[in-house]
Write the structure tokens for this entry.
Amino acid sequence: MNFTILSSVVTVISLIVFLGIIYWAFSAKNKDRFEELARLPIDNENGK
């Protein structure tokens, strides 16, 4: 196995992992959790 094939395999694996992270981040089932986490700094300033 030469460097070109290994480099191509790593690139494809990296792309698949990246697309998986994008899918997870924009998944509808995570929306409520992410919105709650986004409000934490604001709620903390108000003393809640």
